[in-house]
Amino acid sequence: MKNIPRIFVGNNVSENITLPVARDVAHYLTKVMRTGQFLAFGGGREFNATLSDDGKHMIIGSKTEHTDPANDITLMFAPIKRTDDLINMATQMGIKAFQPVITARTVAHHINWERMNKIATEAAEQSNRNSVPTILPPIKFADLDKTNIWFADERAAYGANIKNQAKQTKSILIGPEGGFSDEEFAELDKANAHGISLGKTILRAEVAAVVAITKMME
Description:
Layout: E1 6-8, E2 17-20, H1 23-32, E3 37-42, E4 45-51, E5 57-63, E6 74-77, H2 83-92, E7 97-102, H3 113-126, E8 134-135, E9 139-140, E10 150-152, E11 171-174, H4 182-190, E12 194-196, H5 205-217
Parallel strand pairs: 1-3, 6-7, 6-11, 7-8, 7-9, 10-11, 10-12
Antiparallel strand pairs: 2-5, 3-4, 4-5
Helix pairs in contact: 2-3, 2-5
């Protein structure tokens, strides 16, 4: 079936089990998609599944051969006004986890993280992933382990010569709309964090995240 719906059902899903189905999921399957067949996924695996006749349970069947296209990159980022777009796009890029970091110039302090988790789930369903990225609790920049990480170094846009040297890391840090402060740059440099250039133009934070992830995947 070409456009069979994909539903995230949790990380402990397995073959030949029956699970209760949420009312909104049952409505989506029967009223919107008009089908009782779907693909259930979670924990990196995908299964054939059907909705019970009474619409109250999902019956998980055999595991499919579809492998999870997600990667093992952690995106560390300062929350921004368009955090929803950042979560959506980075999830589609296949990242494993999000780590919000409160920096000196972070202006978005009241993010609805429950909604962000829902956005990540929907993006995973639509992008053919078998997993949903984890959104970790926010931490302060001062508490971030800055060793052995990449960070998007916007100093390149002001003429600094930033070398994109290879480094064995799976973590990338993106700054807020106003960029990192001088003090934060000093801390990153002191910790030997590896700055990478995203080009000679100033990028929106959500765009910078996509470009940085692309560079890590090269």
